[in-house]
Amino acid sequence: MTYKKLFMGALAALGLVAGMTASAQEGDMSREAIAERLKPVGQLCLQGDECGAAAVAQASPSGGGQSGEDVYTSVCAACHTTGAAGAPVRGEAADWTSRLEKGMDTLYDHAINGFNAMPAKGGNPNLTDREVKDAVNYLTEPVRGEDVAIDTGDSEGEAAPAAQADAAPAEDEQQVAAASGGASDIDGAAIYGQICMACHDTGAAGAPKLGDDTAWAPRLEKGMETLYDHAINGFNAMPPKGGNPGLSDAEVQAAVDHMLSSVQ
Question: pLDDT tens across 93-123, in order?
């Protein structure tokens, strides 16, 4: 009986130790879980810190902007695959002969700053000059000769696009427009001919064509304020202000009024 009592006592002691160990482990796990939940969601990185460099690398894994082909596909293809508004078609040598004779620098300048019906940077002011030049290189690649010098400069360190606030109309300009009756005194037809016709004369990228009652009917149902808002701030494939951030809101509204006058 003595041995049996000793054996039972030993088992009880082992059970107690095991229970205490499990409880301690659970406590450790609980502390780890709490610490994990309370861990900061971010960290402060100063310029030059390794963590800051890692964040930059993660944000821009390719080390640069979009490729020329990417820019062409997302911005330029709407006109340069269809010939909308007289745009030279990629791969059509006859379309490019006279343009290439002016030199690549001229083509870069026209693409960056706009020319005739083509808006600056194809209507996407957020593109860098480097990205636009790469798109021009891709666009002309099938038709330019091997002896044509192109700009393939490194995009690193290029300045970001100018802040959109700089291109926005001044507050006093908006007040003058409002005082003079808004867009009523502005030549909307002239603005349409300079900016909007590239897409709205051809239907490029799904734009409703001038005078097409069927295309405009569902848009008119949304109301004039919505149409003005879409034209000023952009909507789907249409860039803000038709790709010309230098236009005032009143000028954009005048262009919209001109387009709607053909279907109302």
Answer: 999 999 998 899 999 999 999 888 788 888 8
Cα–Cα–Cα angle for 251, 237, 170, nearest 5°? 30
Candidates 38, 35, 17; CA nearest to 27 is 35
Cβ(244)–Cβ(169) under 8 Å?
no
* Close Cβ partners of 24 (under 8 Å, ≥ 6 residues apart): none
Query: Are the beta carbons of 108 and 139 closer than 8 angstroms?
Result: no
CB distance 183 to 253 below 8 Å: yes
pTM of the shown model = 0.44
Whole-angstrom distance, CA of residue 195 vs CA of residue 258: 13
Helix axes of 249-260 and 213-220: crossing angle, nearest 10 degrees = 130
Higher pLDDT, 82 or 67: 67
User: CA–CA separation, 164 vs 250, rounded Å?
Assistant: 17
Q: Cα angle vertex 111, ends 105, 117, to 5°?
A: 130
One-letter amino acid at 66 equals Q
Kindly give the residue spans of alpha helices, DSSP state H, lying in 68-212: 68-71, 77-80, 93-101, 104-113, 129-140, 164-167, 171-179, 188-191, 197-200
How does 45-70 read in b/e, with b if 16+ C-beta sit within 10 Å? eeeeeeeeeeeeeeeeeeeebbebee
